[in-house]
């Protein structure tokens, strides 16, 4: 058996997320079915992490083990089998000990907002439309408070289960804010993110930047270590997994 690394882009609109779910269609399931069609063998695909239902990826990374494959032929065959909303961008043989999840050093997510009064219809599935005034300077000040190493329990769903219950501390290396032609991007780069952490932080940033909660409340939110204390998450449709670094 050989180990293969794949990079994947997908539109998450119609999927339950990355991970296989009972009675729901997932990205992982679609790729595993395509590999079964290609190889005739049941194959487990391990991703760099889970994306939630409705979240997109411009470059997810995963690995799987299989007998000898021609990477170029396998790439074409998989994309012929997969739905058009999922595309394998690259496929290559990897080192035997390569692991898409445990080998990842950092991840970058981008959240897309649209700020003009009218959102173009072709963007509606990939951006969160903000219809009320948003203070960009205040948004940037709030974002700075999240950079660094913190206990992110307040900003993680299911904080009492999974990785969050073991260690809720993560390091965010940077949060960059860019605005162009009414479209705003919030780019998060960190060593890892808890379940719904990026969406929860984004929801809090929006609430601060629109004046719904004060900036000074952030300190008490961190100390509370209680998800119920923070604002609701931003919608899934605006979030993209952009890059995984090894």
Describe the structure in your own words.
By secondary structure, the protein is of the alpha+beta class. The chain folds into two domains: 92 residues, Pseudouridine synthase I, catalytic domain, N-terminal subdomain (Alpha-Beta Plaits), CATH 3.30.70; 140 residues, Pseudouridine synthase I, catalytic domain, C-terminal subdomain (Alpha-Beta Plaits, 2-Layer Sandwich), CATH 3.30.70.660. The protein is 25% helix and 29% strand. Strands 1, 2, 3, 4, 5, 6, 7, 8, 9 and 10 form a ten-stranded mixed beta sheet that branches. α1 crosses α2. It starts with a strand and ends with a strand. 33% of the residues are buried. The model has no long low-confidence stretch (mean pLDDT 95).
CATH topology of the largest domain: Alpha-Beta Plaits
- The helicity comes to 10-25%
Overall morphology: globular
Query: What's the CATH superfamily of the largest domain, by name?
Result: Pseudouridine synthase I, catalytic domain, C-terminal subdomain
Keywords:
alpha+beta; 6 helices; globular; Alpha-Beta Plaits; 10-stranded mixed β-sheet; 2 domains
Brief rundown of the structure:
With 246 residues, this protein is of the alpha+beta class. The protein has helices at residues 27-39, 71-81, 136-146, 162-166, 197-209, 217-224; strands at residues 2-10, 46-47, 56-66, 86-93, 106-114, 128-129, 148-151, 169-180, 183-190, 239-245.
């Amino acid at each position: 058996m050989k180990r293969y690394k794949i990079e994947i882009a997908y539109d998450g609109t119609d999927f339950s997320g990355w991970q296989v779910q009972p009675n729901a269609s997932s990205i992982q399931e679609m790729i595993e079915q395509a590999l079964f069609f290609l190889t005739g063998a049941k194959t487990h695909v391990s991703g760099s992490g889970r994306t939630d239902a409705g979240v997109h990826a411009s470059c997810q990374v995963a690995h799987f083990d299989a007998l000898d494959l021609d990477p170029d032929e396998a790439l074409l065959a998989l994309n012929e089998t997969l739905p058009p909303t999922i595309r394998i961008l690259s496929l290559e043989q990897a080192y035997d000990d390569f692991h898409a999840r445990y080998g990842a050093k950092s991840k970058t997510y981008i959240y897309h907002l649209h700020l003009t009064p009218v959102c173009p219809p072709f963007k509606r599935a990939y951006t969160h439309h903000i219809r009320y005034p948003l203070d960009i300077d205040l948004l940037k000040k709030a974002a700075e408070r999240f950079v660094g190493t913190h206990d992110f329990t307040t900003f993680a769903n299911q904080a009492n289960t999974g990785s969050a219950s073991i260690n809720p501390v993560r390091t965010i290396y940077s949060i960059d804010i860019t605005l162009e032609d009414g479209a705003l991007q919030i780019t998060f780069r960190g060593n890892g993110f808890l379940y719904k952490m990026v969406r929860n932080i984004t929801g809090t940033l929006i609430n601060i930047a629109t004046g719904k909660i004060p900036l000074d409340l952030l300190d008490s939110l961190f100390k509370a270590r209680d998800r119920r204390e923070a604002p609701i998450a931003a919608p899934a449709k605006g979030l993209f997994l952009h890059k995984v670094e090894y």
